[in-house]
Amino acid sequence: MATTAVDSSMNSVFKDLQTPTKAPTKELGKDEFLKLLTYQLKAQDPMKPQDGQQFASQLAQFSSLEQLSNINKALEAQSANFGILSQSMANANAPNYIGKSIKASADSITYDGAKSPQIGYELPSNAASVKIEIKNSAGTVVRTINASALDLQNGEHRLTWDGKADNGTAVASGQYSINVTAKDASGGTIDAKPFTYGVITAVRFKQEGTVAVVNGVEIPIGDIEDIAM
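Request: output the structure for the sequence above.
Response:
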């Protein structure tokens, strides 16, 4: 008789756990654990009460579950607060970088019509060929530069664009994009990372994050790799 009562009660609780409003999970939370424990106490045979040692063990498990849950919440809150603090510190220090020379991961530059901009790229391995294409705002290639043999080795390479098109005429001032295509000896593509170099002239605090203005281009602070102090 007692066994039937226990089975019926346990089936009921499992049915309750399987039909909650939230999606089922593989983990047993503290609420579910407490519900099972409560049903167990209700369904036990008064003539054969739950073993005291086993019951104490279950209570200890519940206490541990509660403590771990609270610790996890505290760590999550601490992590969120640390992220906010780190961002605030970065924002506070950002204006100090104005006037500093930097290298940043970027695929665009601004040409003012006078000063030759510096561009660069990084190779993760030796290449057989490297082609740098400079495109105007319409996406048209205005200048193609084939890297020399010295600029095919793995590592960072820097070059200066004289502001001229392939036919030797000067291009108009404005913003230009950089496309670097690197190939290995078998014709396979090598992931070449383009860079831009310049001086930070302003820092802007935007909703999507803090950016530095370099050569007229907004560059996220996180994309800056080197700063000359």
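Residues 81-85 have pLDDT under 50 and may be disordered.
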